[in-house]
Amino acid sequence: MADKMEKASRKGDRWKRNVFWCIVALLLLSGVRANAQLPPEARRGLWRAQWITASGISQRDVAIVHFRKFLDVERVPEHFVVYVSADNQFVLCANQREVGRGPARSDLAHWNYETYDLAPFLHAGRNVLAATVWNFGVATPLAQISDRIGFVVRGEGEAESAANTDPSWEVQEEKGITILPGSPELLRHYYVAEPGERLDAAQYDWSWNDSAHSSGKWEHALPIGNAIERGAVLQNINWQLVADPLPAMQMQEEPIGHTVRSSGIEVLGEFPGTGLEIPAHSQVSILLDHATLTTAYPELTVGGGAKSSVRITYAEALIDAQGVKGNRNDIVGKHILGVSDEFLPDGAEHRTYSPLGWRTWRYLQLDINTENEPLRIESFRSRFTAYPFEEKGRFQSDDASLEKLWEIAWRTARLDAHDTYMDTPYWERMQYIGDTRIQALISYTVAGDDRLARQAIEAFNHSRIADGITRSRYPSSVTQIIPTFSLLWVGMIHDFWRYRGDADFVKAQMAGSRTVMDWFLARQRADGLLGDISWWPFADWGKDFSFGVPPQDANGGSSIITLQFVEALRYAAELESAFGDPIRAERYRAAELRAVQGVRKLCWNANTGLIADTPSQQHYSQHANILGVWLDVIPKERQRDVLTRILSKSDKGFHSTRPVPEMTLATYYFRFYLARAVKHAGMGDRYLELLGPWREMVGLGLTTWAEQPEPSRSDSHAWSAHPNFDLLTIVAGIEPETPGGSVLRIEPHLGRLHHVAARMAHPKGLVEATYEVEGTTLHATVSLPPAVTGEFVWKGKTHALHTGKQELTLP
Q1: Fold of 250-386
Q2: 44-178+207-243 is classed CATH 3.50.50.60
Q3: In this predicted structure, what is the pLDDT of residue 234?
Q4: Per-residue pLDDT for 30 more than 50?
Q5: What is the DSSP string of 294-313?
Q6: Domain spanning 732-811: which CATH class is it, in words?
Q7: What is the predicted pLDDT for the residue at 43?
Q8: pTM of the model
Q9: 294 close to 321: Cβ distance less than 8 angstroms
Q10: In the predicted model, is pLDDT for residue 21 greater than 60?
């Protein structure tokens, strides 16, 4: 009876396979006929490769799948180029060697594909291409836009077309990886990045990318439609493919950390040293300190330990019983709370666990429970990953403490940049305009690399809603709109023009800047102030601002928001004058004049000598007065006095004899605009006195700059990294005088420094400047790249600069 049932089962399986292949053949035949009937212009952009998935899975829920394809190669070619993409993400291997990861995040209308040359990974004979692809469903990070799980490979030429995805590829669902729910304590701080993962070694196919040993249940892949490039006439699928403009992310091995605390076993020094064995029936906890924050893929290799469990928890800092971080170097009386992964060994040797997504940590804790077998930790390492910025810019001086500030700021900028800019690499990993504007300026001047900035500017342009304004962050699967960030996006376009040039790229953004400006122009009141604006008009995490929103009158009147409008109007007018519509430029200038006059008339208080936040003049902030100085809404003769007075509320060394009303203080983010105001007011020599908050963070043991003053959710926030930009542009004084920097203006503000050596990246090379102060004399050495000239300003006098090296001795 059992034999008859087994035979019947086999017949049923054959019948199902036959039906499957008939359906596939019909689909392919109908697709070939349909495509053959299309004129050439309609076939343009249609790939011969197909998006594939696995049958029997829910394509929009959590799923991890493996794909593989066998390639027979007579001899290794010089090149074997393929284009690869997936939803959400993929890891591609060739002959058990990792080729790459991707795709870079984007939206469905601009879905990135990566380009790889597989030739170095191939050998004569049979080869195997294999990929892990995952979709985290509702647990997908907010920065990840998604349609459904899918994978595509296209070979560049005829020979490479053997790699094209179609039903000849095989697929299996990976049952050994599941998603861990986030802890309530974590989620209440707005955690929207990658989820934790659990890998059950007994369920996992450890040879998924090795055809000789794989034990998985493989089936033929299910095609779901031809891949298409963006702009193709035939669009039968959601992903419109574009080539990823970014380089591959950096991957570099680094130590995992050193042991600072353990229980259940004694562990000292670098971990794991020569290996570590956890006895059977043990409960062990080991806390590691990386010494600095990092973004990396942890890789844990173990042997034995069947039915044991390893929990890996990652955190920026430890917290005490009240949830306070305090000094990040202190561990006494503190515990770890954060994102966690779990690994369940199966007793075999050389099992290596690494999560699909990279993690962020300074502190990492292993919590290990063993059953009847000891668990041997063979190795524990990490692979650092981030956008491959190079530190071309530099700042050195006779104040050694500034080098520490530079180092921390650069680390912050590095960790907050991957396939997009990110506000924080731990909590959100979202590309916000407010953060990104500052990050892009650091990229231009320190790295000399504008590729990630171009991606960001275009992404925000793509994010615009029907109303005309941008989303506040993009890519994002959840819509969030901060109208004031749309104004900053116009500033980003202007920044790019000023520091990088490239008129064609700037022109391509102009249509978007116009819809943004029109949205705001329609909301300008008759008195010049902006009226009520919807969504979330964020300005800063000021202590007295309601969820970051500054005070407004009954109809939205706010000097801070109106002054941000003034900045954008000014930049938009310059862009239109250079590239666009002179009539529109005049319209912007007229609106700017009305806004400036409105702020002066309604918000300037003659008694306090300050700009109030609203026409009722009941509330004051540093923010309104910072912008008022920077944008010359406050007359020049009053600017130094205003800055001195508002800074007397927050910064040591600034004292005022006149009473100053209580006011909301600018946090790290908005002090970027403070630095601009201080320089604009002719107080650049006092810039170094503004670095007190950053010195305080160093005293708290931070190795990246925090989101806001304590208590800060995030220990790494890109918008706080602007001192690197300030040191180059204010202290060293190197700035473009003309778009693209073909003419520079160098005006150092050395303050108490006697020696400075600075190097700033430029589209045409490096700008180098060395300053030595002896008594009242300045010895300056300046080197400009080819085809770059400029002027050097010292004590109000201007001196011409030419291409190449020159020395100046100035009284």
Answers
A1: Jelly Rolls (2.60.120)
A2: no
A3: 67
A4: no
A5: EEEEEEEEEEE-TT-EEEEE
A6: mainly beta
A7: 56
A8: 0.93
A9: no
A10: no
